[in-house]
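USER: Note each token:
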Amino acid sequence: MQTWKRALIFSSLGAGVALLVSGRRAAGVVLTGVGVGGLVFENRKTLEKVARDLPQFLEKSSQVMRTVATVSERLMEMRRYASRG
């Protein structure tokens, strides 16, 4: 990506976030949209690959979250059992 494009994209994103944080929502959304649009335009191939791989990534993420939930439930049960005894 050319330097001027990179500067335009990241300055738009930065200014947009700063405006959103400062309470100027409309201007922040516009500038952030310009930055995100520039990123999408410059990285179409990468985004297509991400879109193709997204279902598999979501499935793996769901498996991890289910495992974490199961482990935390078991730890809570062990803690309750230990506090009784």
